[in-house]
Amino acid sequence: MINFNTENKKLEKFEQFRDEYIKLIFNNELDRALKFILNLKKMNFSIKDIYLNVFRESLYKIGDMWENNEIDVGDEHYFSESTKIIMSHIFVNEFNHEENQKNIICGTIEGEYHEIGIKMISDLLYAEGFNINYLGTNVPIKSYMRFLNKNNFDAILISVTLKKNLDNLKKLVKSIKKEDNLKKMMVIVGGYPFYEDSNLYKKIGADFFGNDIEDIQFYLKYEKERNLKISLFFI
Ligand code: B12
């Protein structure tokens, strides 16, 4: 049973952490911001909590501040780039990675420059042992197809934030689904437009969408077990 009091206290704490993190970055104290984050880890907050409740929530807050003209676009760029630097530090120094043999490719669709969401998902899956090929932003459909045909992937995870980029995503998924050698690869999509419409992924032609890391972990695990059962059946 969920204890709402404990949950509320935890959320209040995270709001304080988020605000302290924003303050440190805007004071140009990147070093102290990094130490602050590493200290949360020492206090036994999980990386997932830090990623989702401190980084993600601070970025959402920055987005609101930008929309309300409280900060300039330069401040917003500076904040997101600083967060990427800190995430890279955590990725290199704080993750234990024990490979589980599943190969995943992650990136954003052509036209899409919002990458921190998919980088978070990709980092957290890496921490779970998935072998990650991270391609970053604005990847042309042709390049995805070339990359997919050269390698053997269990799943592709693509992120879209701006609705205007959904057409490109649909084209990519269509190209993937046409290829016989990619039939077994799971196509997973996510990002802002998928929060609004839980059936959108079907219209796009994808196999699954995830709002969060838990959905994806569960789906990939379930698929793994399903594949295992299928292969055992044929032995
Ligand atoms: C940082 C930022 C930028 C940076 C991005 C830097 C970078 N390297 O990523 C830059 C400066 C490039 C940028 C540019 C623009 N931005 Co901007 N940006 C943001 C901001 C502040 C934060 C985004 C972010 O990192 N969020 C944190 C991450 C962790 O959250 P997330 O993306 O939602 O990801 C989570 C889930 O969605 C999910 N998820 C995401 N992808 C995937 C994929 C899969 C497969 C799965 C399973 C899950 C999943 O998992 C993540 C963890 O929970 C948002 C504000 C906001 N509310 O999000 C605006 C925002 C997204 N931007 C916006 C706009 C309008 C723009 C511009 C058009 C501005 C302009 N006029 O130039 C351009 C467009 C650029 C482009 N073509 O892509 C609007 C979008 C409005 C809309 N809904 O259409 C927002 C909401 C700001 C606002 N309040 O209006 N932006």
TrEMBL record:
Top-rank taxon: Bacteria
GO BP terms, alphabetized: homocysteine metabolic process; tetrahydrofolate metabolic process
Signal peptide range in chain numbering: none
GO MF terms, alphabetically ordered: cobalamin binding; metal ion binding; methionine synthase activity
Alphabetized InterPro entries for the sequence: Cbl-bd_cap (IPR003759), Cobalamin-bd (IPR006158), Cobalamin-bd_sf (IPR036724), Met_Synthase/Corrinoid (IPR050554), Meth_synthase_dom (IPR036594)
Location of the B12-binding domain: 101-230
GO cellular component, one term: cytosol
Assigned keywords, A-Z: Cobalt, Metal-binding
Designated name of the protein: Methanogenic corrinoid protein MtbC1
